[in-house]
Design goal:
The chain is about 55% helix and about 15% strand.
Length: about 325
């Protein structure tokens, strides 16, 4: 079975590396959008996104046509806001197979998650989601990692779980696509909030409060959209939230940290939580549910408030039961 990973960023490359290492006889096709990066990777055997990590010989950095045409399973490791345009452009080549979304976000235009985006653009594909607490560098180095594999089709989910699990990457299966992808998307918003809290000097107690109340917001939205509580308490919900809100390896956390410290964030860094905060705020308004932290993060990332004013506004909200 040939695996295709679309998107040779750090996470996509790490997945290609660990899957290829687990079975040297399996071909893993890796597509990179930048032709210069493709040439460099083929010449050096390394990815500029993962310095020091050698690509196994059965990872083939190749053209998109070759990668898609040969693949039995396709992992979509492109940014969340780039997913729908990519699927629309290449829909004719993507159908009839499992498409596993590895991005974490909510589409700004449609307010859909990755699985609904796949279903709407490639109707004959089988949507799945791979998400959970992980950093690309850890996966690529072979450090123990556990993720959630969500697929509504149980038989396909079992096949994907068996195919994509490795000795160091353990996948847990669920049919709850909505819960898995919302947990993964919304934790990035809370990571920005927690980073800003630490950057502004509000302390660890404030971060713990934001993390906990952020989990309540994630649950509120996910349950309103039909997710299962146990999914949110698992790897793709609580697990990913804790990791992303407490580690400087998280890009969303580092982005928030820079905002809190009054520095300009790294302009070249992909920060999915920025777009997700705006999309989730709009979705919350549509659903008629309160998500004050999410709305505040959206305002903060647009420069409409400051960390100090944001914290004051959150603390001044009416007192209520937990």
């Amino acid at each position: 079975m040939t695996i295709c990973v679309v998107g040779a960023g750090a996470f996509g490359t790490a997945l290609a590396v660990t899957i290829a290492r687990a079975d040297p006889q399996r071909a893993v096709q890796l597509w990179v959008r930048d032709i210069t990066a493709e040439t460099t990777m083929n010449w050096t055997g390394e990815s500029p996104r993962l310095p020091g990590v050698k690509l196994p010989k059965n990872v083939h950095v190749t053209s998109l046509k070759e990668a898609l045409d040969q693949a039995s399973v396709i992992l979509l490791a492109v940014p969340a806001q780039a997913l729908r345009p990519f699927l629309i452009k290449h829909a004719a080549r993507l159908g009839g197979r499992p498409l596993v979304a590895c991005a974490k976000g909510i589409d700004l235009e449609t307010l859909d998650g990755p699985s609904a985006t796949i279903a709407a653009t490639v109707p004959d594909a089988i949507p799945a989601v791979l998400t959970g607490p992980s950093f690309a560098a850890d996966i690529a180095r072979g450090l123990p990692t556990a993720l959630t594999l969500a697929c509504a089709d149980e038989a396909v989910g079992e096949m994907l779980q068996a195919t994509l699990s490795t000795p160091t990457l353990r996948l847990y299966r669920t049919t709850d696509l909505r819960g898995a992808e919302l947990g993964g998307a919304l934790k990035n918003v809370m990571a920005i909030a927690c980073g800003a809290t630490i950057g502004a000097g509000f302390g660890d107690s404030a971060r713990a409060a934001l993390l906990t109340r952020g989990y309540a917001e994630i649950s509120r939205m996910a349950l309103a959209l039909g997710a299962r509580p146990e999914t949110l308490a698992g790897l793709s919900g609580l697990g990913d939230l804790v990791l992303t809100c407490t580690s400087a390896q998280s890009r969303n956390y580092r982005f928030g940290l820079a905002l809190g410290e009054g520095r300009a964030p790294d302009a070249g860094m992909t920060v999915e939580g920025v777009a997700t905060a705006s999309a989730a705020s709009a979705l919350a308004a549509r659903l008629g549910i309160e998500m004050p932290i999410t709305v505040t993060v959206a305002q903060l990332t647009r420069g409409e408030t400051t960390p100090a004013a944001a914290m004051q506004d959150l603390l001044a909200r009416p007192l209520k039961e937990e």
